[in-house]
Structures are given as C-alpha cells and as structure tokens.
Specification:
Blueprint (H helix, E strand, L loop, with lengths): L2 H14 L2 H8 L3 H15 L4 E3 L4 E3 L1 H28 L4 E7 L4 H14 L3 E7 L13 E6 L7 E8 L1 E5 L1 H7 L5 H4 L3 E5 L10 E3 L4 E3 L2 E6 L2 H9 L4 E5 L4 H6 L3 E2 L9 E7 L7 H13 L4 E2 L2
Parallel strand pairs: 3-4, 3-5, 6-15, 8-11, 8-12
Antiparallel strand pairs: 1-2, 5-14, 6-14, 7-12, 7-13, 9-10
InterPro entries: LysR-type_TF_proteobact-type, LysR_HTH_N, LysR_subst-bd, WH-like_DNA-bd_sf, WH_DNA-bd_sf
Pfam families: HTH_1, LysR_substrate
GO molecular function: DNA binding; DNA-binding transcription factor activity
Length: 298
C-alpha cells in the first residue's frame, strides 16, 4: 500500500464527503478511492469512515487521524508545489565543473548567462580530474580531450588541435627540428593524464606513429606545461586552448606543423536528458549557441 497516497485520498474524502467526488477530482474511479481507504483501515485496524449510499462521514478514529495528518499533508503539498514551480524557472544553484585551463573560455558565457538570468547562482569547480556528476552533484561539466564515457550525455562544442610548440629562445639555442628524427634530439615536456596517471601519448603524423619524447619534465597540469615550454625548457605537445594566447603573442611558435595527433574536442557533459531543471537546460542551450563555429588551435 502507498501510505502517502492512501492518506491523501482519505483526507480528500473527509473534505468532500464522497468517494465519487474525489474520483472525479483525481481522475480515477470511485472504486479505486474506496479500495485505497479500505487498505488504510485494514492497515490501522480501525474504521475511519461511516459510509452510506450518498455520503461518507468520519468516525472518531477517522477524525483523530485527520487532525493529526492535516497539517503535515498541507505542508507536503506546499513543498511539492514550490519545487515544481522552481523547476519551471531559470533560477537556483548551478554547479559547473571544468579544468582550470578552461576558465578563460568559460568566463564570458558564464558571465553573460548570469546577466540574462540573475536568479541563477553559479558554483564553478575548477580541477583537472574528471568530475563525478553524482558524487560531486555537478549539473554541467566541461572537459577537453576525448569524449567523456559512462552514463553521461556529452556534446562536442568544438575541435581542439594539439601542436608541437617551443619558445623562440629555446629554438635559437637548440635549433628548429625539421623532421621527426630531428625531434628525437630535443628535450620535451610531457603531460600526465590526471585520471590514469600515465603520460599522454604522442601519436604524430598521418599514420599516428607513436613517438616517445625525451621528457625533461612531466606534469598533470596543462597550464604548468605551457609555462615550462614558454620558459624554454623544451618542446611540448600543447593544446590549442592553453597555448592560444602565447601563440598569438609570439611567446611560442609551432614546430613541425604537419606532425600532430588526431584532433581532440572540448566537451560539455551532464548526467541525463530527463527532468533537467530549467536553469540547467537554459545554460546548456546558451553555451552551445555561444561556442557555435568556434575552434581552438586550427
């Protein structure tokens, strides 16, 4: 027996005085209403209603039950109405997860979205590890790399290219590699995947040839790797998001432009398409529109 449902129907019968009136109001049969009340009486071991062919009235036990449950049922009804009303509004807390290196990309759309919807409060979690949307109660996540897997909905917002980059000062000291063989004589920086703990593979060339660099340094933070390359430590395989500003400013240059891995993506992901709050759905649509036609490193 659904006790909450049975109590709700009982309270409505007490108020309307008829199984038939409650049935019409609830869109069910009078028999279903009567069965629910009978099950409640059997469960409690008392009669709750005096029944006639025309009307139902409360017994002493029924009145006592109604007096005890009326306020909690009213409170529950108001709470459910409030949650439903909130779910239909673009308002409330929106928890977003993204790598620190993506903050420059996300600052603009997040700011514009909050201007448009001032009743939304954004909680932005910045970390390189992939966020568990359930354990960390994340509404929307962003990740650069391969498509997120698992029980998630993922949308590729734009393409991200990885390119071999170096500081002009480093190339002035050590020369610019012209072939893959030349690259083997250079020191390099390596990115370590935050999830697996393994170095990110360098699959270079049209055939995706595996290349093992001479690692002068290894880090699990892409911004740190960019900083090391910019400082002249060596050549790094950098993504177009993190390296974009330095490439535009000339602090980094691309070497061996024809040797680069398969393009990655910048992804938006969320737990499910079903029953998304309006604030989450509105934010997803806003971000997809914002990044339409965008690319990084191409």
């Amino acid at each position: 027996m659904d006790q909450l449902r049975a109590l709700t129907l009982f309270s409505k019968v007490a108020a309307m005085g008829s199984f038939q009136r409650v049935a019409v109001a609830e869109g069910i049969t009078a028999q279903a209403v009567g069965k629910s009340v009978r099950q409640l009486e059997e469960h409690l071991g008392v009669r709750l209603l005096h029944r006639t062919t025309r009307r139902c009235t409360l017994t002493q036990e029924g009145q006592a039950l109604l007096d005890t449950t009326r306020a909690p049922l009213d409170d529950l009804g108001r709470a459910l109405q409030q949650v439903h009303a909130t779910s239909q509004q673009v308002a409330g807390a929106l928890r977003i997860s993204a790598a620190p290196s993506a903050r420059g990309l996300l600052a603009e759309p997040v700011a514009r979205f909050c201007e448009r919807h001032p009743r939304v409060q954004v909680d932005l979690l910045a970390h390189n590890a992939f966020a568990d949307t359930v354990d960390q109660r994340v509404d929307v996540g962003f990740r650069s790399g391969h498509e997120p897997c698992g029980d998630l909905v993922a949308r590729r917002l734009f393409t991200v290219r990885q390119q071999l980059c170096a500081a002009p000062a480093y190339l002035a000291r050590h020369g610019t590699p012209a072939t893959l063989g030349d690259l083997r004589r250079h020191r390099c920086t390596v990115f370590r995947d935050a999830q697996t703990g393994r170095p990110w593979p360098w699959q270079l060339g049209s055939a995706g040839e595996a290349f093992e660099p001479d690692a002068a340094a290894c880090t699990n933070d892409p911004e740190t790797e960019v900083a090391l390359v910019r400082a002249g430590l060596g050549i790094g395989l950098l993504d177009g998001i993190c390296a974009a500003d330095d490439l535009r400013a000339g602090r980094l240059v691309v070497v061996l432009p024809d040797l680069h891995p398969e393009d990655l993506g910048f992804y938006l992901y969320y737990p499910s398409r079903r029953r998304l709050p309006q604030r989450t759905r509105a934010f997803i649509d806003f971000v997809v529109a914002h990044f339409s036609g965008h690319s990084a490193g191409r």
